[in-house]
Amino acid sequence: MTQLWDFSGGIHPPENKQQSTRRPIQAAGIPERLVLPLQQHIGEPAEAIVSPGDRVLKGQMIADVPTGMGVPVHAPTSGTIEAIEQLPVPHPSGMADWCIVLRPDGEDQWTELHPLSDYKHCDREQVLQIIRNAGIAGMGGAGFPTDIKLRPRGDRKVETLILNGAECEPYITADDLTMREHAAEVVSGMQVMAWILRPARCVIGIEDNKPEAIAAMRAAVQGTRIEIAVIPTKYPSGGEKQLIRILTGLEVPSDGIPADIGVMCQNIGTAMAVSQAVLEGKPLIARVVTLTGDALHNPGNFQTLIGTPVSYLLAQAGLQGAQLNRLVLGGPMMGYTLNSDAVPVIKTSNCVIAATASELPAPAPEQPCIRCGQCALACPMELLPQQLFWYSRSGEFEKAEHLNLFDCIECGACSYVCPSSIPLVQYYRYAKGEIRQQQAEQLKSDRARERFEARQARLEREQQEKELRRQERARAAAEAQVKKQAEAEQAVQQADTVDERAGKAALVQQALERKKAKAAQAADTDAPPPANATEDSQPLPDIDALEKQLLQAQGKLNTMQGMLEEARAQQADNVDKLERAVAKNHDRVERAQQALTDARKVLAKQSDAPAPK
Amino acid sequence: MWTSFLIAVVVLLALALVFGGLLGFAAERFKVEGNPLVDQIDSLLPQTQCGQCGFPGCRPYAEAIANGEAINKCPPGGESTIKALADLLDIEPQPLDAEHGAEQAKRVAVIREDECIGCTKCIQACPVDAILGSAKHMHTVIESECTGCDLCVEPCPVDCIDMVTIQPDIRSWSWSPPEPDIIATDRQGART
Fold this sequence. Notes:
The structure holds two protein chains of two kinds. Chain A has three domains: about 20-355, 3-Layer(aba) Sandwich (Rossmann fold); about 375-435, no CATH class; about 540-610. Helix content of chain A is about 45%, strand content about 15%. Chain A contains 18 helices and 17 strands. The longest helix of chain A is centred in the C-terminal third of the chain and has 72 residues, at about 425-495. The termini of chain A are far apart. Helix content of chain B is about 35%, strand content about 5%. Chain B has helices at about 1-30, 35-45, 60-65, 80-90, 120-125, 185-190, and strands at about 105-110, 130, 140, 160-165. The interface between A and B is large, with 45 and 39 residues.
């Protein structure tokens, strides 16, 4: 008997699992249209590598992640790519994202598969690559790419590999049925992962409310070193951190991952997908989805192609539309309400609940917190839900963060026990979102500051270089001058006559005088007539500015025209652009001229008026 | 009697000298370069470098705030920045000074690329080097680096730069707080 530990808190909500376990897994079949979101995992979205109109085969890769973290997407059946467009995807926001739409041709024709019957003789890296290329991401809900999870950082050794068969959330039975019917595949998948990681211990944790699954798994692990641990039923024992606590007594550090303490948790569905990918060469194109709720005539588990619209599945399970009140994706504790049944099933969707009004009634109105402390007792992460609630509500996110808000696993146990029916988890999710957004903004502003400062430094450097060059030129000019003078003097000395020297000096004198006169003349013409300037100092700068504007506009227009003519001469392709630009600048010149004449008129009036005085 | 007074005075004087010397030494030895408050203020400002506050960039404004300038002249930062600054400086938050502009949703500059003539004027105007291009070739804005300061709009000779409000998408979405609900008795009343 395996030694078990207990975690603090937890609750015992009604299980409601029997509705969907009465019948074996059924095949949902091929719908008329499959919608495959490009992002079904954590990381970078995949990029489509097919185009509308292409014919694809079942299992063919249709989107891949070229750089960064992510896994590819495959065609779940053969057919034609109809479109690549934005469509609603399963997400609490109800927003749309990029999807590939596939119209099945009904032939269900497989692409060529490359099974690896004897993976133990291959390189581990090669097997990890197969897992990645099969598009496998954690099927428990988060969707973290499995191949990356199976590559713990160099200094971390996984001592315990855990397969999470707890499935503690009410209603959901997908893993239960998978273990009952595909026990051998689940075990072989776990063996592949164990071969990659070489852990000292392999455990499958199953809650004691699934006796059939336990029996099936016990039979399947005969002759292997895999243990089956039967754990007491308590929500949320299927939470990764809770299950690790139950099975090993270890606690995952805050901000850490299980690999930090030498443990790794994998999902039942993921193990089956790994087995199929490695041993059969099949990518992840289907999963088991629980369809349950009182609004369904035939609740049960369905082997569903990824991309199958929820509406199609509901029809398969005998939806009684009139009774449907709320559609929930995921479980009743951690799932979210779907606004539309047009969204597809993705790799992480494990359950759809079609609930009647009496089954999942609208949440009762929120009442003031009475400080009963029930939430703190129920919290499986030993947090302080009350304090987190105060701080999240009042926007004091720093304090909430200080109380380890980010350790909250959003299991919903606190909201479940709250006698004032406060939607605590939503407050925490909101606070987490705000904090993340603030962090992102901070990051962006830091980068902007860096760029600004770098630019400032560059401009300064350029200025200095310019200055240096100018000085260099001035020095060179001065040197040349000195040289010239020296030469002249030499020449004078050589000439040897005082007369000539005097004559030269006179010439130089004359030249200097001419220059002075020129300078004076230039100064006269440059300077504006001083008479008006002193009298009407108020409107005159206006005229100056306007004149300057006009000149600028004319200058701009001239350059534009020059560019246009040049472009015309060369028959460049930007002629029409330049024509538009010239027209715009014409307007500008006209406006400036208008403004100038107006200003002049005003000025004339003003100077006329005081004249008679 | 007088000697004890004298002793007290001498002792106190000696102590004052010793501690004065110590303090003077510490002030020299552990001198902080620049004003650390300016850095703190600067880190709270949004770094759009837009100059709407009347200063040529965020850092100059931070320096001005450290010297007593009003904290409500930053429209891109808006209420949240004013609140953060008020917290830091321990003064009363003031409403945003309308003279310097109103708080707007986050925006980015977008160049209508088929109208761009490649004059490089916007590149010179951009305070964070977020515009890419060269003379007589099309320019484009690096969206992730654009701070939405709109300093590039004015210099454009062909007016081909638009300021576009950033639409929330599925990746930037986050949960909104629960709506304040009616109280229980109200709902019961509404049902009957």
